[in-house]
Amino acid sequence: MLIGEVARRSGVSARMLRHYDSLGLVRPTGRTEAGYREYSREDIRRIFHIESLRSLGLSLREVGQALDNPEFAPSELVDDLVERTRERIAGETELLARLRRIGAVGPADWEDVLRIVALLQALGSESVGQRQRAALSSVEDVPVPVEALVEAALNETDPNVAGALRWALARTGDGGLALLAEGLGSPAAEVRKRAVESIARIPNGAATALLQESLTDPDVPVRRSAALALGARGVADAVPTLVEMVVEGTNDVDAADALTVLARDSALAEQIATRLVACLADGTMESSARRRLTQALAEIPGNTASHALADLSHDDDRAVALTATYIAKLRNAQ
């Protein structure tokens, strides 16, 4: 079969068939009297084998090895192809995400596109300074893709940059809330905690509901971050976790401040005081924990807290007694 007919039947151009010939991949078995290439049935079968292997992503060199090297190990090459394909898909996925982010901002001209690209590159920079400057960029001067901000906030490990990213997200309103909610479902506790910290900066009911859901998170730091945010919003569900934080001495000052905010509700103030007093009555409680609980009673109004402080001023633990006496005097002087 002559080269033109082979090209028509196989779908491989005559030019590519000549290239295969020059590389030694497929050399026609014969020649006509006029010197034209003449392909046998076996030659055509080899052409189809080549095209099949090329469709898997093999280079022509790898195709030649696969067909001609008797020691060739297909499994190793397939594993390599799988890895290369994964890398290519990851690269294409990243490109697609970047294009979608740029498109979502709605750039007016190429100058806008270039500024957005520069911002996205800075958000992904290894330099802490560059990431922070990108987060603090004015949304008026450089439109910030919300999706990119959320991704950066959920992955940022530097506390200063993370704070700047949360500020930038808060300025966008609740546009990133749905994406942050997805972050709450991450298998990584650190990501869930960053999601909670970002949601805490968004002052609306939907954000509050997400924070309340996080009070049941299996990771303790996630629950505590949610409780601090909810305490500042006056949500009573946060009380048990906040009291636990006081007992264990983890961000206990912040937790006590949150309890103070919640205690502005007189009915809730009595509940908080009752819970603190119940913890103080635990005979196995360490002295340092009892002192923290006593200090937490200082800003809790109501009779329950006042009576507890009066009793604690005679406590067997001198440090607790002195603390309670001092706090009681301050309360009486007000």
UniProtKB/TrEMBL annotation:
<dbReference type="InterPro" id="IPR000551">
    <property type="entry name" value="MerR-type_HTH_dom"/>
</dbReference>
<dbReference type="InterPro" id="IPR011989">
    <property type="entry name" value="ARM-like"/>
</dbReference>
<dbReference type="GO" id="GO:0003677">
    <property type="term" value="F:DNA binding"/>
</dbReference>
<dbReference type="Pfam" id="PF13411">
    <property type="entry name" value="MerR_1"/>
</dbReference>
<dbReference type="GO" id="GO:0003700">
    <property type="term" value="F:DNA-binding transcription factor activity"/>
</dbReference>
<feature type="domain" description="HTH merR-type">
    <location>
        <begin position="1"/>
        <end position="69"/>
    </location>
</feature>
<dbReference type="InterPro" id="IPR047057">
    <property type="entry name" value="MerR_fam"/>
</dbReference>
<dbReference type="Pfam" id="PF13646">
    <property type="entry name" value="HEAT_2"/>
</dbReference>
<dbReference type="InterPro" id="IPR004155">
    <property type="entry name" value="PBS_lyase_HEAT"/>
</dbReference>
<dbReference type="InterPro" id="IPR016024">
    <property type="entry name" value="ARM-type_fold"/>
</dbReference>
<protein>
    <submittedName>
        <fullName>DNA-binding transcriptional MerR regulator</fullName>
    </submittedName>
</protein>
<dbReference type="InterPro" id="IPR009061">
    <property type="entry name" value="DNA-bd_dom_put_sf"/>
</dbReference>
<keyword id="KW-0238">DNA-binding</keyword>
